[in-house]
Design a protein that fits this description.
homodimer; alpha/beta; Aspartate Aminotransferase, domain 1; 2 domains; 12 helices; 13 strands; 41% helix
Amino acid sequence: MVSYRKPQFFRVMKYAAEADRDVIDMVSGNPDWDPPDGLREGLRAYADEDSSAFQYPASHGLRALREEIAARRGVDVGRVVVTNGAGEANHLAMAEGLAEMSGSEVLLTDPVYPYYAGRANLLNADARFVPVDDQGRLDPADVRAAASDETALIVINSPNNPTGAVYGEDRKRALAEVAADHDALLVSDEVYDHFDYSGRFASALALDAENVVVTNAVSKSMAVTGFRVGYGVYPEWLVDAVRTRHMLTNVTGSRPAQHAVLRALETTRPDYYATTRRMLEDRIDAFTDALDAAGAEYTEPEGAFYVMARFDGFPGTYGNVERLIDEAGVAGMPGEAFGEARGDWFRFALVTPRATDAADRLAEFFA
Amino acid sequence: MVSYRKPQFFRVMKYAAEADRDVIDMVSGNPDWDPPDGLREGLRAYADEDSSAFQYPASHGLRALREEIAARRGVDVGRVVVTNGAGEANHLAMAEGLAEMSGSEVLLTDPVYPYYAGRANLLNADARFVPVDDQGRLDPADVRAAASDETALIVINSPNNPTGAVYGEDRKRALAEVAADHDALLVSDEVYDHFDYSGRFASALALDAENVVVTNAVSKSMAVTGFRVGYGVYPEWLVDAVRTRHMLTNVTGSRPAQHAVLRALETTRPDYYATTRRMLEDRIDAFTDALDAAGAEYTEPEGAFYVMARFDGFPGTYGNVERLIDEAGVAGMPGEAFGEARGDWFRFALVTPRATDAADRLAEFFA
């Protein structure tokens, strides 16, 4: 029996849903706000199309959608592969990176988004974890110290889940250089790029480097995690292998969602994203104020929509997550799900208008 | 550079689409008939749902959809994993079969549906091809002769693409026994189960065997190849590993399509499928009559919606496919795309009301 490191988000969500009391759900990365209007309009328009529009799109995605993405990202359309969410885009990057680069080791951060670690394990690669600093940032010097001839991949995520850290262009360039020096691929997952409160976010596409993959999706930015429309921008030399793996794994992505997202991309104005960003900043302020009142230590996020917090003498284990659900009515993710460096912490997703209530409940529980 | 055996359907479709003349497209398996009404209704209803319905479904599929499938197939709901089409269901079965069973060899038919061969290659397995008989059927005795301790998987597809052969329950039981005798998994792809003209089709689920996976999708039966809603019914002992691989590859499937398909399953009456089946039988009769007039040899399909045909002195190569597109105005798939046994043949998909015109064009070309 082979066993893989399985991300536990669904497990904690299920425990919270089955609790015998009111629970404020801060587990998942499921946005609680509305998608842009174009999304629903796109679905309705698609429902009325001729049935030929219900058949296979191009394996690597609807042409118009790829062109829209390529134009926005300033890349050649041939480098864009539309995937079943950023998850598949990352999977393809990691699988083909391991196939193409020398070495069989994957450098990941600690704390880590658990899907990266699970994929390394699924792909029979060795995962090596580089602890981030107190602000949740990865130091390129630490990555250089950990890298070796065995390093095939370096996977980063900024704005970061779970720490909220945002990496600027210099940091990404330094990481790409470490990767290049070791014949490794840098995979830059930028799915939270619309949620940068620091003003420092820069896409790794700006590096214009041969050994960099950028992945993204509309799951978070358009509040549709269930649509599974993501993409990767792969280097020219890698994109054919990625397309083939995508075809052999999934044949193609789901077309209703691609149509809806295309319409939404064409019609959504910048103020949609700005409004969401402001709402999340307000939530972060209110939640961290209440955490101050609860005497908790926490990381002020520079981006994304998660807050990591630590409570004295109450480490972030699965057992304690279940206690918080049952006794405080607040569901978060255990720090131990994200690695060792933040094993004492909890991650709270600010995907509920009741974030302040949640912090008040925590303050009462820990009083 | 790693290179995989890449299915060439999209390549031929592109050549046909770019031809400088009217071409009757018989390349793809894209149905040209309408989906059931419930499908469009389901999409419209979904577009009006609360935005919480736009977030991650359970990784292995919407609960109501899994229950609907399990009830129809008479299996425990825990064995059902909803996938991104039958393609992903097959990929998961092959990947986990290779991980769990002894050996690293995959037994496939010749001719073969090219995705199976491509996946064997992607998964670093050795593919061994067992030629089918003149009627396109696989003889279990031939499979037994080819099987060894190295055999990890036997992959069958019935009703068959490309030959149209339908395997009855006895044949499937014999194949499952060969698999069991060699600690191998039998993967039975039944995506054409609604298109059985022989009355002999039986699902491998009827075998109730521990080493059998059944895969399926609504892509063909509901004429929505682009929706990517399929499923696998996996043995109890394998389903956890399959779920984890699915989660790490795709996170989850696309929810708009799952909602639409659920509604369609709930509301579509048997006469929808019967009407389609009768239409296809009429097309097959007309097309094969015209092939008779053209002096071609062909296999009368027992199921699915493909006809394989051979023209004297004109083998089924990519070059000859392109000649037929340019000079006859008929696009089919080359036999060589499906293996060696039918390398001289062409495959024509009866997904156009102009199938008879196509046969007339072929008769004229070969006159």
